[in-house]
Amino acid sequence: MKIFLFLIIMFASSNLLATSMQIDPRDTHVRKGEGFDVAIALADVNDLGGVGLKLLFDKNTLRAETVTAGSLFVETGDIFFEQIDNEDGFVLINAVKWEQGNGTGTIGSISFTCLSSNPEGSLTLSEVRLLTYSTPTTDIEVSTITPGYVHPYPLEYFKLAATGTFKVGVSSSINIIAFDRYGTVAEGYNGTINLTVDNGTISPASVTGVKDGSLTAKITLTKSGTTTITAKDSAGTQTGTVTIYVIQGTPTTLFIQPATATLTADDSLTFYTFVGDNSGNTWTVTSNFSENDPIGTMSANIYYPGKPGTWTITANYNSLMATATVNVTLGLPIAFFIQPATATIATDGSLTFAAFIKDMNGNTQTVIATFTANEGTMSANTYYPGKPGTWTITATYTTFIAQATVVVYGKLATFTIGAIGNQIVGIAFPITISALTDQGEPAYTTASLTTTSGTILISVNGTYMGYVTIDKDGTASITVSSGTISATSNLFFVEKLFLPKSLDDIRVWPNPYRSDKSSDPFIVFELPKGCHLYIYTISGRLIREFENTLSRTKWMLDNQDGEYVSSGMYIYLIEHGGRKVTGDVGVIR
Q1: Does 512 sit behind a cis peptide bond, omega within 30 degrees of 0 on the bond before it?
Q2: Where are the domains of the chain?
Q3: Is CATH 3.40.50.300 the classification given to domain 6-151?
Q4: Backbone phi, then psi, for 507, in 5-degree steps?
């Protein structure tokens, strides 16, 4: 293929006083190994007698092959001679006309071969000398010379190739190669390439640094699945694509479904878990499940509830954890009962009953039942007695029937309080109260028991035997009252409490506890305030815990569920101020 580059010299006037040079076409596209011609011409000249010029080129980009005379110097008798110097990168042309030259024509044509894959450069004229015909020694000054440019063939399209495995959130490589219209690598292309995907996002969104027409780019994708990557020249419309498969990223979040649910205690519920990566991709996984229902169970991912309440289902997958909340309601009722099952009240009193249903797991729930009494009256679930005696309260709920027994005593007339000796602050001590009718018979009443530490309500069924704690030292008394009937105990003195200042001063008593020796059903730990107290079985199982204790803590010989412990040895651990103290206590029932 031949490409002609015209250098046009224009004269401003007929006496050749000023000349400009113009390259037409200004730009030439060529690729390595391809040849092209340069034609140098003068336009609108007169009185031209001779030409001398030097054409400069990049010796690493081009190689000059031949030079031929142009139309202005092919007449008989004209002289045209040239010199090619590829080592220094120039061509010399000198030509003489025997007849006056006028009009437009070429000085000469030069054939080049492209040596470079990226032939980006210019062809520059220098040392230009024009001589007049009428006065051969007269030079004409050249005022403006515009160079010509040589370019590689432009980008036509991209080819993309993926390497390795693509994973969400992990940098992976793609190869991008630029091609020209002939399917040859466009080694001269070094533009900016914009990257897009049809699924999720890609980072970076554009890449640079193309060398010799190709680039290996590190990219990060955000969406799993089949994805098409498109490369597009930022300055044009040339594109290329490649389709890849992207696997999920590293799981960072675990989800459990359903996240919330409500079911009965004799039902079941299946859970499912999903993991997600940092880009929002999710997929199902098999997790390990557990629950905090005291009598519920998990079988794989199926929950079988036991006790009504709000419970947490926990799923674990590798190092990830997720929870769901389940509200368990009572199962199918299999039993019905009322409370209290037995009771004692006075003729001028009243008694409110509560009705319950029970499911197969032993869970209970209050219900509204219909109540009747074989003596006295019922108002909804409240009983009002009529006369002393033993009476039956009957409750019905759907097809269930339950009964309670009520002993009705006569009207309260007087109280008596047993003698009380001196006590210690914070230590419970026994008190005996008798309630009598005006005939001297045992009476039943609900009374207020008032001490210097406050007022509590008690139920007196003829005789009340209970425990009272005074939290202030000094002289004290106790008053029992019900309506207008009251009685006050003798005065007694309450001594100050011994308060340990450190773990070196703690006291634990009685130790051992013996039910046949102690009237108080507890063991007292006298501790510095703010201790943590833990009680373990002899095998090391934690059964009771007290945090941030008061100075005197009572262990009621029970576990965390309120159940009384059996006879045996128990280990206690006390923590305070960074120190720990252990010991043992005995329980003999």
Answers
A1: yes
A2: 6-151, 157-247, 253-329, 335-397, 414-495, 503-588
A3: no
A4: -135, 140
**Contact in structure between 28 and 148 (CB atoms under 8 Å):** yes
Q: Could you give the angle at the alpha carbon of 86 between the alpha carbons of 82 and 89, nearest 5°?
A: 90
Cβ neighbours of 67 (radius 10 Å): 21
Note the CATH architecture for domain 157-247.
Answer: Sandwich (2.60)
Q: What's the N-to-C CA distance of the chain in angstroms?
A: 115
pLDDT for residue 15 is more than 80: no
Per residue in 120-140, pLDDT (tens digit) is 889 998 888 888 888 888 887
Query: What letter represents residue 79's amino acid?
Result: I
253-329 topology per CATH:
Immunoglobulin-like (2.60.40)
Q: In CATH terms, are 253-329 and 503-588 the same topology?
A: yes
Each residue's pLDDT tens digit, 335-379: 999 999 999 888 888 999 999 999 988 899 999 999 999 999 999
> Closest Cα partner for 393 from 373, 417, 367?
373
Write the DSSP assignment of 67-116 as a string of letters: EEE-GGG-STT-EEEEEEETTTTEEEEEEEEEEEEEEEEEEEEEEEEE--
Architecture field, domain 503-588: Sandwich (2.60)
**Closest Cα to residue 443, out of 483, 410, 407?**
410
Q: E strands along 359-453, which residues?
A: 364-367, 370-373, 377-379, 382-384, 389-397, 400-409, 414-417, 423-424, 429-436, 444-451
Residue 394: how many CB atoms within 10 A of its CB? 16
Residues 6+ apart with CB under 8 A from 163: 172, 173, 174, 175, 216
pLDDT of residue 316: 97
Q: What are the two backbone dihedrals, phi and then psi, of residue 115, each rounded to the nearest 5 degrees?
A: -100, -15
- Over residues 210-239, the mean pLDDT reads 93
Query: With respect to CATH, is domain 414-495 assigned 2.60.40.1930?
Result: yes
pTM over 0.85: no
Model confidence pLDDT, tens digit, residues 530-543: 899 999 999 899 99
Phi, psi of 246 (to 5 degrees): -110, 125
Q: Dihedral sign for Cα 506, 512, 518, 520, please.
A: positive
Mean local confidence (pLDDT), 50-73? 93
